[in-house]
Amino acid sequence: MLRTDLPEIITETLPGPKAQAIIDRREAVNPSAIKCIYPVVIEKGEGAMIQDVDGNKFLDWIGGVGVLNIGFSHPEVVEAVKAQAEKYFHGMYNVVTHEGYVALSEKLAQIAPVKGDKKKVFFANSGAEADENAVKIAKAFTKRPNIIVFSGAFHGRTLMTMSMTSKKAYAVGMGPFPDGVYRAQFPYYYRNPAGMPQEAALDYYLDSIKAVFEQCGPADTIAAIVVEPLQGEGGFIPAPIEWVKAVRKICDENGILLVADEVQTGFCRTGRMFATNYWEESGVQPDILATAKSIAAGVPLSAIVAREEIMEASAPGTIGGTFCGNALACAAALKTIEIMERDDIAGRSCEIGEKVSKRFNEWKEKYPVIGDVRGLGGMIGLEFVKDQKTKEPYPEFSAAVIKGCAQKGLMIEGAGTYGNVIRFLAPLVMTDEQLEAGLDIYESVIKELLEK
């Protein structure tokens, strides 16, 4: 049964012959800007496993980039989508009310840790749409034109979210961009400025927000500060809770809304239903939460949650869209959340995260190319460096690790401002045997590369 199988490569080379033929067809008909470095053409997926068209079996620790927290083709989600499909695929929510949209909204209003007693919810199709809509409603509520985002941030590929995203490799040739998007420094403690004592770091990063007020837009022109609780593309960097508390205070003092981008961190990935549950446990809540990815186990859907007074500030017609809150997606999401709560997927995320972090930290002691291990729950980053003292990034090594692991049946993916971080985004339903097998492959590739 694929769901419990271990990685197995049966072809002499990767990609195998059937996969290569399809990859050749892909290159002929799809733009090269949508690149793929993996030698895999999926035929079916179950749990954390992929079987390709040649019969090779891969352990997937990318999860569609964080979409598959409960794995590929969960049987109960499949049945929920089938049941909905037998009734109707779609009913535009501006035209007909469908109960799935209402029920999912009620559930998210109940569980999302945003500030306020009465919450309202609406849906979009992708993480970028969720982030953009969060900014739209923040501007509508505050009547202010500007926002603050951070170094290392990734928020999407629409025109607005490309502007918000820090790494401009994702925006080459796409300008001009909207104005009013200002950038402060995210607290990347591993790479504090040279010579800075750790006790000075918090003030340094907070001062960069205050510098925005002075140099870019006064505080009373800022609608929102948008934060990833744990940066994804930026290198799996958790926002320190003492910094989050201070940012919340800055927002409260200046009438600014705090927006949490939980596109990648939501739905049990970090060991809580949302990463902002950790904020809530420390007495801090965002005003708006934008989330997507694992919300519907692979069916496209995203959500925006905020208290009623914020949501009601948007003028009719300014939010929503044809496919937003599609009936099949809502059915998948309701079942996904039910499974996550019933099976304590957040607890499993913590359990996996502890095992992975322990092993990664052991590697850090053994292998001089590992500079930092960090994350929350089952969302962990491993940063590769040429020297542990100088911390010089080593993207060539991390790229070689990714390639080497794929050849042995383990799929992992890079991240980070310098391209030197490998992220752990594995489906949280993998077996203990699969986890150990993946870690063994991972370590074997690191050792082989260092021995060359």
Structural write-up:
- By secondary structure, this protein is of the alpha/beta class.
- About 40% of the residues lie in helices and about 15% in strands.
- The chain is built from 14 helices and 17 strands.
- Helix 3 (about 75-85) runs antiparallel to helix 11 (about 325-340) and helix 13 (about 395-405) crosses helix 14.
- The longest helix has 22 residues, at about 345-365.
Helical percentage: 25-40%
Ends apart, CA distance between termini: 37 Å
Fraction of residues in β-strands:
15-25%
Principal-axes geometry comes out as globular
Number of H/I helices? 14
Sequence of strands across the biggest β-sheet: 4-12-11-10-7-5-6
Largest sheet: 7 strands, mixed
- Our Rg estimate from Cα atoms comes to 22 Å
